[in-house]
Design a protein that fits this description.
The complex is a heterodimer of chains A (about 160) and B (about 750). With about 160 residues, chain A is of the alpha+beta class. Chain A contains 5 helices and 5 strands. Chain A is globular. Chain B has about 750 residues and is α+β, with helices and mostly antiparallel strands. Chain B contains 18 helices and 31 strands. The longest helix of chain B has 28 residues. Chain B is globular. Chain B starts with a strand and ends with a helix. Classes of the chains: A alpha+beta (about 160), B alpha+beta (about 750). At the A-B interface, helix 1, helix 2, helix 3, helix 4 and helix 5 of A face helix 1 and helix 16 of B.
């Protein structure tokens, strides 16, 4: 089937099998390998991308479902050489170990902040509860997301 | 976080800076194995069997081969049948050698039967589904106790069991006030590194060389295994370590590499193989199922005089590392307490189940869980405080391991126990909990000790090397065989170089392990990376520093003694020479490249001590366990990366909590299939269940470690399961020692004791 979608800000048209997994479309067809596959059944979150600003698993989303949608992957977070505030905070808070969960973790966090500018710690834990980090116990990731939220708000909006 | 003050004014050591490759990791630009491919890369996919134990009579590959895009299909019937061992690390050792590329039998459900190579991964997957296998089923056995029976199904001609025994002193002759026995059982789990296993091989016709890219822990172990398996001299095989998305031991062994290497050689091509999660869980390796019976003899005051231990380890379908693992578990029982005798019998037993393999701490977790459960049981029986009970019999700094007479070095049990007790507010919590009213939510506290190693000294020849060269612009390239698992060992090595040379860490580059670069090294396991390789890097840096000084003195026409040096600038008598000028002078005037090369042979294997303290709240209605406080005290010698160490510890506690609360792979009795089939129903710990972990570091220094540093990554998991188990037993008044303690187990234990 022919699909039209916007990928990381760029309009795209593709002729694909409607049941092709989004993760295969991204990684194999478009060679955007930032999105990782960890389980293939929606349990690890490594393939999280945003579909119209909502975090979804690219391994459970089919190509036909993205027709007419905005898709944002980890490659789309950086704009004009400027890292997203989440990426900066993940580095600054040293939330990075092996890094394999990072793209999915960042996209889940991005989805959270786009829909909730002032998340509580419970909101953050909930938003990334479907994203597994096996190296580091989540604490630095949670702190990095909270810092990014605070910095984005930059005022007392969240008080 | 509680920390002793750092007595040294270091610029990098003990200072927090982001992990190596952080930017590449958060932008998704770092290419892991599954992300990289060439324009002509072929894709291999594996078809697993559907019998737990069977002869493979025939594999019909005609339909698969007929699929357009399929290049080759390999099975037992068209590959060589020579044997190899996945656990081989040092080329001159004699491992079990039970594995082949494809055997004429499958010994566990999911074992590989065929490999398809195709021009696209989806074609290879489709072709796998077209393969038809004819089996002659054989009786299967899943339980290691049953596999020991005389009439049990036999998996290998040599039998199902390898027995090991270790001892010192005369256990049976020891006098004792009391004798106690506990049985600790640990379940089969998966490591759950987020990156699935993958490997790629390329045979280059022009150079007649085979190159392997793999996220591994021992490039030289893989080279020896592949060279011997394929009949290639080692200089025609190059193994390069790929970026690694976590290991925890699961990438320590040679599993996928023989398949891609064989296909690449046969096809004179570039072949890539990526496993899916079910294949990783079922057919790479699992954490061993283990049953340990511990008997102690004790004096009236609770001091243990001797231990008698029986260990039953489920090796799975192939022995591979299990006999060595079983022996290693036994060797770890006399590194914490002052005892007069140990009698250890171990049985590594093959069953028709997934292969047991290397797991973070290589047996220390199994050993410590059994021993610390036992000591906590003694404390409950004797009515003694578990910390006081331990303080009266722990080994002191300088003590020897009585089995091999190697010093445990500056091991700091007492510091971990005392400082941990205070920071956790153990006594205060005990007082509060003593007044706890019975209700739906029960609180409890518990603790346990751990001890781990820092090298292979005493087991294997502990050799490594590091080479540093200073470039023409005074930047530095380090070559050593580090295999970073993702935990920051590359950053550690760069810090050691930058600190020693007094230069910016931004001017230090290094490549990870590559058999074509640098010298032989055993690999990154046994907690040797920082203590052994780090020390070699430090000595190479010191050599380079000495050469820099000599050249600077000549450059400035002064004696070396007159030189002062800071941040890349030499000064003497009011004149200065920048490092760049020193390099220029050395190369132009002295025909000398500035470098440091250290061949290092470690002659020490000190211990690292740890003590973990846990507080839990148990809902006796649902059996749900919530961790309300956790403190980990670690004897680390000298911190190098504080934040990364805290993350390592929290990640280890997360794995330990997973083992306690419900991570488990079981074998379906009717089929022999491993369940669950994938991550979806695997009970790992997510962000909602993970407590914040408080870390306390004892930095008392270890003379032979770089800057005094010792290990932490493996050590961090060792006391976790026993500490959490103790807290649960404290809350419920139980003696549970069989994990997982999932809600069903907790509810049943409560019902048995009338707790409601």
């Amino acid at each position: 089937m022919k699909i039209s979608f916007v990928l990381n800000g760029e309009p795209l048209q593709m002729d694909v099998q409607g049941d092709r997994r989004l993760i295969d479309l991204l990684r194999d067809d478009l060679r955007l390998t930032g999105t990782k596959e960890g389980c293939g059944d929606g349990a690890c979150g490594a393939c999280t991308v945003l579909l119209d600003n909502v975090a979804v698993h690219a391994c459970l989303t089919l190509a036909g479902q993205i027709d007419g949608c905005q898709v944002l992957t980890v490659e789309g977070l950086e704009r004009n050489g400027q890292l997203d505030i989440l990426q900066e905070c993940f580095i600054r808070h040293q939330a990075v170990q092996c890094g394999y969960c990072m793209p999915g973790m960042l996209m889940a966090a991005k989805g959270l902040l786009l829909n909730n500018a002032c998340p509580t710690e419970a909101d953050i834990r909930n938003a990334i509860s479907g994203n597994v980090c096996r190296c580091g116990g989540y604490e630095q990731i949670i702190d990095a997301i909270a810092a990014a939220a605070a910095e984005t708000a930059k005022s007392d909006v969240c008080q | 976080m509680v920390m002793q003050s750092n007595p040294y004014d270091y610029k990098y050591i003990g200072k927090d800076i982001p992990n190596d490759m952080s930017r590449a990791k958060v932008t998704g630009t770092l290419r892991y194995g599954a992300d990289a491919r060439g324009s002509d890369t072929l894709f291999m996919r594996i078809q697993g069997g559907t019998e737990a134990h069977a002869e493979v009579l025939d594999v019909d590959t005609a339909a698969a081969l007929a699929l357009p895009g399929v290049v080759a299909v390999y099975t037992h019937f068209n590959v060589p049948h020579n044997y190899y061992d996945r656990g081989r690390v040092f080329p001159f050792e004699n491992p079990p050698m039970q594995e082949q590329l494809f055997g004429d039998r499958v010994r566990f459900y999911g074992e590989r039967i065929a490999a398809v190579v195709a021009i696209r991964p989806d074609i290879a997957e489709a072709a796998c589904r077209l393969i038809r296998v004819t089996y002659r089923p054989l009786p299967a056995v899943f339980d290691p106790e049953l596999a020991l029976a005389r009439n049990a199904p036999r998996l290998h001609e040599t039998g199902n069991e390898v027995a090991v025994s270790l001892s010192f002193g005369e256990y049976e002759a020891l006098a004792a006030e009391r004798v106690d026995t506990t049985v600790t059982k640990q379940q089969r789990t998966t490591h759950l590194a987020m990156e699935n296993h993958c490997a790629r091989a390329r045979y280059d016709q022009a150079t007649q060389r085979l190159t392997i890219w793999t996220a591994c822990q021992s490039v030289y172990g893989i080279r020896a295994t592949l060279g011997d398996l394929l009949g290639l001299p080692y200089h025609r095989v190059q193994v390069i370590k790929n970026p690694m998305g976590g290991s925890f031991g699961c990438k320590q062994e040679t599993i996928l590499e023989p398949l891609v290497a064989y296909a690449a050689l046969q096809l004179q091509a570039d072949v890539s193989l990526v496993y899916d999660r079910v294949q990783v869980m079922e057919s790479t390796m699992v954490k061993h199922e283990a049953r340990l019976r511990v008997e102690s003899k004790t004096l009236a005051d609770g001091r243990i005089t001797g231990l008698k231990v029986d260990c039953l380890l489920n090796s799975g379908a192939y022995q591979t590392v299990s006999p060595a693992y079983c022996r290693t578990i036994g060797s770890k029982f006399c590194r914490a307490y002052i005892i007069e005798a140990l009698s250890y019998e171990g049985h590594a037993v093959c069953t028709n189940t997934p292969v047991g393999g290397s797991y973070r701490s290589w047996g220390s977790l199994e050993e410590a869980t059994a021993l610390e459960n036992h000591v906590n049981y003694l404390a409950r029986r004797l009515g003694k405080d578990p910390i006081e009970l331990r303080l009266q019999q722990i080994l002191s700094p300088g003590a020897e391991n009585p089995l091999n007479h190697i010093s445990l070095g500056n091991i700091r049990f007492a510091d971990c126990l005392r400082q941990g007790r205070d920071a956790f507010d153990w006594d205060g919590k005990r007082r509060v909990l003593a007044g706890q009213v019975d209700g739906r939510y029960r609180q409890g506290i518990g603790m346990a000790l751990g001890v781990h190693s820092n090298s292979y000294f005493g087991v294997k020849p502990e050799m490594t090397s590091a080479m540093l060269k200073m470039n023409e612009d005074a930047s530095v390239i380090l070559t050593c065989a580090v295999h970073d698992h993702g935990c920051g060992t590359v950053l550690t090595m760069k810090k050691i170089v930058a600190e020693t040379l007094g230069i910016s860490i931004d001017h230090v580059e290094m490549r990870e392990a590559d058999t074509d670069a640098g010298f032989y090294d055993l690999g990154c396991f046994s907690s040797r990376t920082v203590f052994v390789i780090g020390r070699a890097v430090q000595e190479a840096s010191q050599q380079l520093m000495a050469q820099m000084k000599t050249a600077a003195a000549a450059c400035l026409s002064v004696d070396e003694a007159e030189l002062s040096y800071q941040d890349g600038v030499f000064s003497a008598g009011g004149r200065q020479a920048l490092l760049k000028e020193v390099v220029h002078y050395s190369m132009s005037e002295q025909c000398a490249e500035l470098r440091g090369i250290c061949h290092y042979c470690a002659k020490a294997n000190p211990g690292v001590a740890s003590a973990h303290f846990a507080q839990v709240e148990i809902d006796v209605f649902t059996g749900h366990i919530r961790v309300t406080d956790y403190l980990a005290a670690h004897d680390i010698g000298q911190l190098i990366n504080p934040q990364l160490c805290r993350m390592q510890i929290a990640g280890a506690v997360q794995q330990g909590l997973g083992i306690v609360r419900g991570e488990s792979l079981v074998i379906e009795a009717s089929s022999g299939r491993m369940l669950p089939r994938g991550m979806e129903n695997y009970q790992f710990i997510n962000s909602g269940d993970m407590p914040r972990v408080r870390c306390l570091f004892v930095e008392a220094g270890e003379p032979q470690g770089p800057f005094g540093a010792k290990s932490v990554g493996e050590a961090a998991i060792i006391p976790s399961v026993a500490a959490l188990t103790a807290a649960i037993n404290d809350a419920l008044g139980t003696d549970l020692s069989v994990t997982p303690l999932n809600p069903e187990v907790i509810v049943a234990a409560c019902a048995e004791r009338g707790i409601k």
